[in-house]
Design goal:
single chain; 353 residues; alpha/beta; two-stranded antiparallel ribbon
């Protein structure tokens, strides 16, 4: 059953800094600029489709390392960029980290929490990380859990100035790729209804304090669970999980559906997920709509990045901040994320000037 979960808090979180490393570039400004221009850098992988054609992927450009070292490279690049943008004295301890990884059920070679400690070694001080540092192995929708953990830390009596939320994921790892290829979920020349596998490391720094400058604030977080799946027809798709997440995010922010100017999805392919988005958004924005009905904008966060899983959330926030600063989308919106395992997340964001 889908469940509506609401997390109420009077404390929004401000995005202070950002970092990104993916097929589109090796810094947040370059990646977001490429996203805004709808540029892509898909390249043939070593994986073959049914006709022996090379399957396209969204890979880092000219980075010859593989496996764990490749993931570490993306993580180190994104977090380093994020940390370098913060006012930080050499003798100050590092802020707590919330590290987002792939869906952590351990199935088909996906992530396990105990396997992620090596990522933290990239920035581990001699006396160890802040004890509030943690892992969230929950894939794309894990951004909700990560932000709730950051909110908890930043509203505690002994709150630090910042919390880093970083995501790293890859759908080009062989076991993960084969799992989705066998399910006919990956785009190829013999399957047009699939996603392009990608890889990325992303990071954002969050604060609960205002510095008086324009910026993006996360005002609400919502979660839900969708029992239907694109890999099975046993349960019909009603998009209840995503609808629950959108409603919970709006409730958390204390606002109504018509207070939002746009919604943006992290869907990267597959008609099933576009259908889910259409159903959920229609149901959410149809509630008690005032007359005349407001016009709702639509955005696609990861249109050209490929499927980057747990890295989608921080990158989506960096993208939204840039778009909203330029007035492209509006000053209030909802970002939403759907996992392959049914978990759903939505974020209510506001660009304050």
């Amino acid at each position: 059953m889908s469940g509506r979960q609401t997390f109420r808090s009077s404390q929004p979180l401000r995005v202070v800094a950002r970092g990104a490393c993916c097929s589109l570039g090796f810094s947040a400004p370059s990646v977001v600029a490429a996203m805004r221009a709808c540029l892509c850098r898909y390249a043939p992988t070593d994986f073959l489709d049914d006709e022996k054609g090379r399957i396209p992927g969204a890979m880092l450009f000219q980075v010859p390392i593989t496996g764990r070292e490749r993931l570490l490279y993306m993580y180190r690049s994104a977090v380093g960029e994020c940390l370098s943008a913060l006012p930080h004295e050499p003798d100050q301890p590092l802020p707590p980290f919330i590290v987002l990884g792939g869906e952590g059920d351990g199935e088909h070679g996906r992530w396990q929490a105990e396997q992620m400690d090596w990522l933290l070694d990239a920035y581990r001080p001699e006396d160890g990380h802040d004890p509030r540092t943690r892992h969230v192995c929950a894939g794309k929708a894990g951004i909700a859990e990560g932000l709730l953990a950051a909110r908890e830390i930043l509203t505690a009596p002994d709150a630090p100035e910042y919390v880093i939320v970083a995501g790293v994921d890859s759908f080009l790892e062989p076991e993960t790729f084969i799992r989705f290829m066998n399910a006919r979920r990956i785009f190829s020349f013999t399957n047009s209804d699939g996603f392009v596998p990608g890889e990325a490391g992303t990071a954002i720094a969050l604060s609960a304090r205002s510095d008086g400058t324009p910026g993006l604030w996360i005002e609400g977080v919502g979660q839900g669970h969708e029992p239907a799946s694109p890999e099975s027809n046993e349960v019909p798709l009603f998009a209840r999980g995503l609808t629950d997440a959108l409603r919970a995010a709006a409730d958390d922010a204390g606002l109504q559906p018509w207070d939002y100017a746009f919604h943006a999805s992290a869907v990267t392919g597959e008609q099933w997920y576009y259908k889910e988005t259409s159903l959920a958004v229609s149901r959410f924005f149809a509630q008690n709509v005032p007359e005349p009905a407001p016009e709702i904008g639509t955005g696609l966060i990861c249109r050209t990045t490929g499927e980057i899983g747990a890295a989608s959330g921080p990158l989506g926030l960096a993208w939204a901040e840039r778009e909203m600063a330029h007035g492209t989308l509006g000053t209030r919106g909802l970002l939403h994320f759907s996992n392959h395992n049914g978990q759903r997340a939505a974020l209510a964001v506001n660009y304050r000037v």
